[in-house]
Amino acid sequence: MSDEAPEWPSEFTEPRQSPGFVFWCDFMRWQRGVNDKLRPLGLTQPQFALLAVYGWFMRKQYGVTQQAVVSRMLWKFPGGVLRACEGSVSQAARSRGIGSMG
Q1: Rounded to two decimals, what is the model's pTM?
Q2: How would you label 55-67 residue by residue, b for 16+ Cβ within 10 Å and e otherwise?
Q3: Interatomic CA distance for residues 92 and 102, integer angstroms
């Protein structure tokens, strides 16, 4: 067995040359900044995104349920995000006039 690392099938010689890696680093930096701002509200960026969609539907007079909001999103949240959102967000949402997540 060789101690050499296997050849990496990439045109880039280091991660910083890869647009995908640079995008991922930028996204993670952005998400950390957003999470820092949301932490006092007890929210994460995915929870905030879910609430934003729900709030948009409510302003547009759509009578939607949590399931309807999630089914219209471009990505699927793990169940834990929804459960955490139900618990930690309900008080913040009510105080802002958004209503329940039901």
Answers
A1: 0.51
A2: bebeeeeeebeee
A3: 15
C-alpha 25 chain-centroid distance: 15
> For residue range 14-65, what is the model confidence (pLDDT) as tens digits?
888 899 999 999 999 998 999 999 999 999 888 888 888 778 878 876 667 7
What is the 3 state secondary structure string of 70-95? HHHCCCCCCHHHHHHHHHHHHHHHHH
CA distance 36 to 6: 39
Dihedral pair phi/psi, residue 88, rounded to 5°: -80, -20
The domain locations on the chain are 16-95
d(CA 25, CA 31): 10
Question: What is the helix (H) or strand (E) element at residue 55, kind and residue range?
Answer: helix 45-59
On the 0-12 / 13-18 / 19+ scale of CB atoms within 10 A, 43 is buried
